[in-house]
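In this supplementary section we document a worked example of the pipeline. Step one takes a protein sequence of length 240 as its only input; no multiple sequence alignment statistics are reported here. Step two produces a three-dimensional model, which step three serialises into structure tokens for compact storage. The input and output of this example are shown verbatim.
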Amino acid sequence: MSARRVLLLAALLALLPAATVQAQGTDRKPAVGGGSYNDAPLLEPGSYRDTIQPGERVFYAFDVKAGQRLHVRAILRGDGGPIPGADVFALGIETPLREVALAAAAEDLSGNGTFVTKTDTPIEYRTAPAPTFAGSDDPVRFDEYRGPGTYFVSLDLQTSNAKPPPIENEVELDVSVEGTPQPEPTPERTPAPAATPTPAPAHDGGGAWAAGLLPAALAGLLVGLAVAVARRLAARRRTA
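The serialised model returned by step three reads:
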């Protein structure tokens, strides 16, 4: 093999990794994270690319059903050195109640936790599966919502600089929703007791009132006759 061919082959081999990286990068969909929960775009699971500036925090939304969990991975591209213009790059997950999932990193796959201080250092973890009820049996964070719903994935480029420089840092984000969706439990409904018809009161036409009035009327009539007879007898005695 001639020296010219050797040099040409070496040049091609040197360019091969860069070409491979570029080919892989084209598979990523561009995404623009929202500046708040309300602005977070609802995305399908997949591979995305975005940019983030020092002091900026962006949000993305993903639906998680009962029995499923999030698998997230993010990396801030660079040379492996300090983050340009920032101190910390963090990958977080917030619940449908917009609370930070403190126990989110149930399975740390990169060993770097949820934040790094250098570029080209991946953050990757899985959350715990979402139970079929709106609550948590976690003995540590029993008050943290871990049920199904729309979860938020956030990227945060933290800095102590009060006026951070407007540096666009390239970031790659991979999100997958793992697990088979489970049907939501249907609450049991207790049938309402059948209404028992109340019988209408009997109409006796005032019979009870009439039955009590008749003896009283007869007694009054007898008293009146007795008084009248007594008066007549007294009048006769006076005239006799």
